[in-house]
Design brief:
The structure is a single chain. This protein has helices spanning 4-17, 47-50, 76-79, 103-117, 134-144, 231-238, 248-261, 270-288, 297-315, 327-334, 339-374, 385-395, 399-408, 415-432, and strands at 21-22, 60-68, 89-97, 125-130, 151-154, 160-162, 167-178, 198-211, 217-230, 382-383, 412-413. It is of the alpha/beta class and 450 residues long. It folds into 3 domains: 4-238, Bira Bifunctional Protein, Domain 2 (BirA Bifunctional Protein, domain 2, 2-Layer Sandwich); 257-375; 376-439, no CATH class. Strands 1, 2, 3, 4, 5, 6, 7, 8 and 9 form a 9-stranded mixed sheet that branches. A two-stranded parallel sheet has the order 10-11.
């Protein structure tokens, strides 16, 4: 079996042999983009290189970038544990060209690595191109020998990338792996594309235009390449599994969680073990990169992640703090590739222990109150937003944990009612503030911008 560590090493080695500079992962806290909560894609550390604001001593690069997504359009936090491919922390493998090579070499590299270096069956690969990108269509025919019906033209923005309203932009070409007809779902662009059969494993972005404020596009003098491949997805392919959580790294973390809780990996405990494994990774790497639990900003996102995992540890029957005891398993799996985990291990363990010790008191009180609130509710009923807000405001029980607990119990929640109560509280707090030296505390809640 090809391990995740082997895949990372193989990817970096291949592109280094092909003349790319090997660039270490940047920290999860972006230093060049104040609009971004965390680094959430492999190209983020190179953003200023692509825009021409920064120069580097190389024109091609390869990296395995740590990424965190915990909200926004991806909604990764709430889906973690319940799907095969949602994560808050993931690694993005990528190769980049800053005005050096363009489409032909990018496609050649991708096809060579996947089918020759890694031995993936070409018959199980399908690609998409932007509907007007005849050049990419022809290159896939020429380089990969793909038939027309496996080069799918897509007219939506799924296959056109832009950095923002203005700046570099261009068409994309995505590579999909077919997991087999025993899994529901159709190819990209079909009515059944949201099924799990065809899974995107690599996205090639061809930066070839500059977009002006009025929407007009002009060709870039030096077109560039930005690619991204989630290591968790390609590990599933190369290890012969369909679910990212069945790959070696996650299996090891889940096994540690099972051993410490005396529960099985499947059945009723399945989602909880997956939440714990995923959130352990994001918590560990965020602390290693200098983020600590707090009541606002990045620290609040980390606190939400930690406490969601801790609630699932409680579900599994953990009577004492659990998360800090799983850190050695995380370091054993990923410390060789990311030595910052090894250096920060004592801090990660101490931070998790302190946070879980504090949270267990809040959790036990909140769950008791929630049980009382749902005692008379029918199956499938919705908890009022006012009640959810009372749990949050009076007892310190976070909304997302209320939502998670209700979901597990087969109940819904009135999000609009909660938001209305939150807005009213903020309005009242601002009205009551007399300027006594501290601004009224509007705790960062759910709408944390990425």
């Amino acid at each position: 079996m090809t391990s995740t560590n082997d895949i990372r090493r193989s990817f970096l080695d291949y592109f280094e042999r092909e003349g790319h500079a090997r660039v270490a992962s940047a920290p999860l806290v972006p230093h060049n983009d104040p609009t971004l909560m965390f680094v959430n894609a492999g190209m983020v550390p190179f953003k200023n290189v692509f825009t021409g604001l920064e120069s580097r001593p190389y024109s091609t690069a390869v990296s395995s970038q740590k990424c965190v997504r915990a909200g926004g359009k991806h909604n990764d936090l709430d889906n973690v544990g319940y799907t095969a491919r949602h994560h808050t922390f993931f690694e993005m493998l990528g190769n980049f060209s800053f005005g050096d090579y363009f489409k032909e070499r990018a496609i050649t590299h991708a096809w060579t690595l996947l089918t020759k270096e890694w031995g993936i069956d070409p018959k199980r690969l399908t690609v998409t191109v932007y509907h007007t990108d005849d050049e990419a269509f022809a290159l896939w025919q020429k380089i990969a020998g793909l038939p027309d019906d496996r080069i799918i033209r897509i007219a939506t923005n799924d296959n056109f990338w832009s950095m923002g309203d203005t700046g570099p932009c261009g068409p994309c070409s995505e590579i999909f792996f077919d997991h087999g007809d025993h899994i529901p779902g159709g190819p990209p662009g079909s009515p059944d594309e949201d099924g799990d059969r065809f899974v995107e494993i690599w996205n090639l972005v061809f930066m070839q235009f500059e977009q002006a404020a009025d929407g007009t596009r002009t060709p870039l003098p030096r077109p560039s390449i930005d690619t991204g491949m989630g290591i968790e997805r390609v590990a599933a392919v190369l290890q012969g599994v369909h679910d990212n959580y069945d790959t070696d790294t996650f299996r090891a973390l889940i096994a540690a969680s099972c051993a410490l809780t005396g529960t099985l990996a499947e059945g009723a405990a399945k989602a909880s073990h997956r939440v714990i494994a995923d959130h352990l990774r994001s918590s560990g790497f965020l602390v290693a990169d200098g983020v600590l639990p707090a009541n606002e900003g990045r620290g609040y996102v980390l606190r939400r992640i930690m406490r969601r995992a801790m609630r699932h540890a409680h579900i599994l029957g953990a009577k004492t703090p659990l998360m800090h005891r799983l850190v050695p398993a995380l370091v054993a799996e990923m410390g060789a590739a990311y030595p910052e985990l090894v250096r920060a291990q004592p801090l990660i363990e101490a931070t998790l222990l302190q946070e879980e010790t504090r949270f267990r008191r809040t959790l036990e009180n909140g769950l008791k109150l929630l049980d009382e609130a749902t005692a008379g509710m029918a199956a499938g009923a919705t908890l009022s937003g006012e009640t959810a807000f009372k749990l949050y405001d009076t007892y310190g029980f976070p909304y997302d944990l209320t939502e998670d607990a209700l979901r597990a119990g087969g109940f819904g929640i009135d999000r609009a009612g909660f938001d209305a109560a939150m807005a009213e509280q903020k309005r009242a707090a601002r009205a009551a503030w007399k300027g006594s030296g501290e601004r009224a505390s509007d705790e960062v809640w759910f709408d944390i911008a990425e």
